[in-house]
Every structure is written in structure tokens, then in C-alpha cells.
Amino acid sequence: MTVPHVYVAINAVTAAMAKEGLGKTRKNEQQGYRFRGIDDVYNSLSGILAREKLLILPRIVERQALERPTKNGGVSTYTILLVDFDLVSAVDGSMHTIRTVGEAMDTADKSSNKAQSAAMKYACLMAFQIPTEGDNDADAHHPEKAPQDLAGALAKSVEWGEWEKTQATALRAAKTMGELHELWSTAANVGREAPNGTMKRLVSVKDECKAKLGAANGKSAEA
Q1: Which residues lie below 8 Å from residue 148, measured CB to CB, with a gap of 6+?
Q2: E strands along the chain, which residues?
């Protein structure tokens, strides 16, 4: 039985990294602990991957983002990415896919970039069993944030997203102006506490449905 080359290559990279190791060369600026950054992973792996003819191709499957105020009055963006990494052999085209989650926060526009780096780093650490106790690159900077349960906040964000989808579906299914108005009144009442942007998107759906129903009523009147 012939083993697909992708597994031979993964094994070879794992063996090389086990021999070379990956030291902690980065230091968190606020808390002082040392960790391994994404640059360390790239620098250690790039030559080995090329030698073993192994490609790592990322695909973002899902993205969640949540904005929260900081103690200083600013805004931090929390981003969670679900990423698939295709490990592809350049010898025979055989492939194996691994999936990781990248999480990061940033007070500017880099949360998605940091989350991608975190996902990539942990994909490599797990796939090639690289000995490490490091954390993701987001740990290099530790922005102040308002005390809160981030996991709970993200869960609530997901719940609002599902609620938005349900309301949009119901609005699009309305058969009359009266039904549309009733559905919108209920949604507008509940949506007062929805995250920024939720009701704005639903307003666009409502206006779209209103226009379609108006056009349909106009055609019926003409007939």
C-alpha cells in the first residue's frame, strides 16, 4: 500500500522540528512573560516545508466579531475565526485538512490579522507537534478592557445573529403590507437591545420587502 506523500512530508517536518525545537524569543510588553510568535513559526518552518515539498493553504470558514468598550473610553474588537488549513503535497497532490480557531482583540483594525496569525500558529504547532507553551501573537499586546465575560458576550453576539436571520426570513415571507407591519413592530420592539448594525440591516430587509409588496399590489390593481 502506497502512503500519500502528504503524510510522509508531515512526518518529515515533525521530525525536523522535534530536533530543532522552537525557543521562546518574544516577550509580552505588559505582563513580562515569554512566548513564541508567528514569526518564529514561519522562520523555523519555511525552509523545512520547502525542502519537504509541503504547502499550507489557509481558508477562512467562519468569522465572528464583537465590539466592546475599554476602560479608557475606546473600543476593542474581539474576533474569532474558524480556519481550515489544507496541507498539500507538491509531489503527488495528496492533501489533508486541519481546522483551528483563532481568537484576538485589538483597539484598531488588526483583530482579524491577529486572529489569522493565531490560527496559523496553532495549526502548525498541532500538525507538526512542535514543543511549545507559548500563546498567540495577540498576547504581545494586552490592551485594557472593561471587566466582563468575553465568552458570554460572544455567545450573546451569536444569539443576536441567529435572531437577525430569523427575523429577516420572517419579513421576507410576509404576504401583505399588514403582515409586514406587524412583524416589523415586533422585531423593532425586541431589537432595541440588539448590537449595532443589527436593526440597520433589518431595516434594509423591511424596506426591500415593502417595495416588493407595493409593486405586487400595483400590478394587481392594474389587472
Answers
A1: 68
A2: 26-27, 34-35, 54-69, 75-89, 95-106
CA atoms within 13 A on the CB side of 71: 7
Instruction: Give this prediction's pTM.
Output: 0.54
SS3 7: helix
The domain containing residue 178 runs over which residues? Answer: 150-222
Total count of domains within the chain: 2
CA angle 110/113/116 to nearest 5° reads 150
pLDDT tens figures, 143-194:
555 445 555 655 566 677 888 888 889 989 988 888 888 888 888 888 777 7
Residue 22 to residue 53: CA distance in whole angstroms: 21
The grid cell for 197 is: 448594525
Last residue of a domain, one of 95, 116, 140: 140
CATH number at residue 90: 3.30.390.80
Report which of 81, 113, 75 is spatially closest to residue 100, judged by C-alpha positions: 81
- Give CA separation, 78 vs 75, 127, 155, 159, in Å: 10, 26, 12, 16
Which of 140, 158, 185 is a domain's end point? Answer: 140
